[in-house]
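STRUCTURE:
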C-alpha cells in the first residue's frame, strides 16, 4: 500500500494518536489504513456409501501450491457469512453441493496474516467436477489420502483431526482450534520441495 485511495497522496508509516503500532496513514486527509488478517473458509466434504467414507479433495490449478491437493476453500468476500463463503468455495472449486455441519477447525496462520476455517460437510451425492481453480477433484478413502502432496499445513491438520476423531462425535463437535507456526509451515514446504 503506497498511496491514499481517497486523495492519492503518498502514505506515511506512523503510529496514530491513541494507537500502539505503526499504520499506513495519509498525511493529507488523515485516513488510517488498517491491515488485518484475512479469513479463508472452506469445507471438509464427506461422502458416505456402501464402500465406506470418502473425502473430497481438489488438485490446485493455481499458485500457490499448484498441483497439490487441498480441501475446497478460499478467501471470504465482503457481505458474506463464513458459512456462505465455505459453500460458495465448495461450489466454485468442486462444483459440489454440500450440507454444512459443525465448524471443524479454526487455525491461525499469523506469519501470513490469515485465519483458516473448515466446516465439516456432508456430500450426499458423489457429483462434482473440477472448477476454474482445480485441475482434478476426487474422492479419497483415508488410506489413499495423498499426505505428501497436501497443499497447506492447515488442510493436513484438519484432515488428521477429522480422521482421529471421526468415530467420537462428541470430540468432533468441539472445534479444533490451533495455530500454525512459521517453522512448521517452512518444514512442510521444504519437504515438499525435496520430494
Ligand atoms: Zn488521503
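SEQUENCE:
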Amino acid at each position: 500500500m503506497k498511496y491514499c485511495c481517497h486523495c492519492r497522496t503518498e502514505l506515511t508509516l506512523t503510529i496514530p494518536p491513541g494507537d500502539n503500532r505503526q499504520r499506513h496513514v495519509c498525511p493529507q486527509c488523515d485516513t488510517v489504513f488498517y491491515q488485518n488478517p484475512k479469513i479463508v473458509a472452506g469445507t471438509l466434504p464427506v461422502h458416505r456409501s456402501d464402500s465406506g467414507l470418502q473425502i473430497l479433495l481438489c488438485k490446485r490449478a493455481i499458485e500457490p501450491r499448484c498441483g497439490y491437493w487441498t480441501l475446497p476453500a478460499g478467501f471470504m468476500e465482503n457481505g458474506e457469512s463464513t458459512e456462505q463463503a465455505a459453500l460458495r468455495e465448495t461450489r466454485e472449486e468442486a462444483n459440489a453441493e454440500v450440507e454444512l455441519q459443525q465448524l471443524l477447525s479454526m487455525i491461525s496462520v499469523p506469519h501470513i496474516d490469515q485465519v483458516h476455517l473448515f466446516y465439516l460437510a456432508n456430500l450426499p451425492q458423489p457429483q462434482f467436477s473440477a472448477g476454474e481453480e482445480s485441475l482434478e477433484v476426487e474422492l479419497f478413502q483415508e488410506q489413499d489420502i495423498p499426505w505428501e502432496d497436501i497443499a497447506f499445513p492447515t488442510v493436513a491438520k484438519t484432515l488428521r483431526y477429522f480422521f482421529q476423531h471421526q468415530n467420537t462425535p462428541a470430540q468432533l463437535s468441539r472445534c479444533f482450534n490451533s495455530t500454525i507456526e512459521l517453522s512448521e509451515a517452512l518444514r512442510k514446504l521444504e519437504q515438499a520441495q525435496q520430494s
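REMARK: The mean pLDDT is 94.
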